[in-house]
Amino acid sequence: MSLSCAMIAIDPPLARACPSTSRPSLPDTPGPPAPQTIFASERLPVEPAPLRCRSPHKTNAPGVMFVPPWTPETLGTCAPGRHALATPELFLRTATHADALPLLAAGSDPEAQRGLGWPAHLVVPAWRRRRALRWRMAMRPSSNGAPAIPLPNLFVALDRERPRLAGALGITPVSEGTGRAGGWLAPAYREPGPMAGLIEAWREIAHRHLGLTEVRCSVDPGNEVAIEAVRRVGLTAAETEDITLDDGRTVPLVWHVSRDTSRAQCAAGQGPDWTETSPWAAVAGPSPQGAVEGARS
Which structural domains are found in the chain, ordered by start? Predict the structure, then answer.
């Protein structure tokens, strides 16, 4: 169950941040401590060991800006280079490279891929997905020295009751004042309520944090959960369009539009993650394929 948006499926920093999914064994180098997401049906008596993952970027890489960690006093507030939003059910923050693997794992199952259509090299295989979806997600974007290199315009959505990964959303600019949004939910959260909460969150981030006046998202007309969610939120349905996904399939999608002309912004303003002169441009490859090949080299 997912909103569909090509920009999330091919985000170059996300592709580069995630290790190759075809490796037969796990890296043995220290990685980020376990974020927290498990399937609702898997109530494990003992917390499993974290999946270790090597970061492709060093913390002292020249020209790379890092997201400063939140403190208890600033948790849930925005600052230059990061955005945060708290809703009754979710806590959203700017994603970092340390979040890449669980984010991809949450959308790699066959049900999600029917709507997302990622290229094969971004789909996390089942054996690795099971491990990644047991990670503990941190409310803060960095810990144990893991680099907090942000993934521009991509956000993690955490369950506020149990800081597990509920989903992900992203917003990409199209033109001045307009953008496209999309996202997906982890398997345990694929219901109209959490989906509506995710849509409300991206509307808030897009309009109140990034200053956009119009944001569009596309929904699979066969996705009953997403259709019910956009109905609850009250998005305006626009045209239907046939879109070719990255896996080569062509699917019909219905565009929905959210408009807000107030353009109120948070304390961080649009932030460097929204400008074309982003200091993080060096970590994003010129194309998704180039980003993945660069990460493997």
Answer: 2-20+74-276 (3.40.630.30)
> Using CA atoms, how far apart are residues 172 and 193, in angstroms rounded to an integer?
24
CB under 8 Å to 200, separation ≥6 — which residues?
A: 87, 233
Which of the four pLDDT bands, split at 50, 70 and 90, describes residue 107?
A: very high
Residue 266 has pLDDT above 90, yes or no: no
Hey, what are 285's tokens?
Answer: 């490859």
Q: What is the token pair recorded at 40?
A: 């609702």
pLDDT over 70, % of the chain: 57
pLDDT, greater one: 6 or 127: 127
Reported as type and span, the H/E element at residue 257 is strand 250-259
Q: Are 12 and 208 in contact (CB under 8 A)?
A: no
Nearest-angstrom CA–CA distance, 76 and 79: 10
Distance CA 94, CA 32 (A): 16
Q: 101-121 b/e with 16+ CB inside 10 Å = b?
A: bbbbbbbbbeebbbbbbbbeb
Output b/e per residue, 160-179; b: 16+ Cβ within 10 A.
eeebbbbbbbbbbbeeeeeb
Query: Measuring CA to CA, which residue among 109, 105, 119, 115 is closest to residue 51?
Result: 105
Q: Who wins on pLDDT, 98 or 169?
A: 169
Containing 237, the helix (H) or strand (E) segment is strand 236-244
Number of other CB atoms surrounding residue 244 within 10 Å: 11
> What pLDDT does 100 receive?
85
Lookup: tokens for 160: 């506020």
Give the list of residues 6+ apart from residue 67 with CB closer than 8 angstroms, or none.
Answer: 81, 82, 94, 96, 141, 142, 148, 149, 150
Which pLDDT value is given to residue 69?
A: 46
Residue 239, pLDDT > 90, answer no
Continuous segment of H or E residues that includes residue 132: helix 126-132
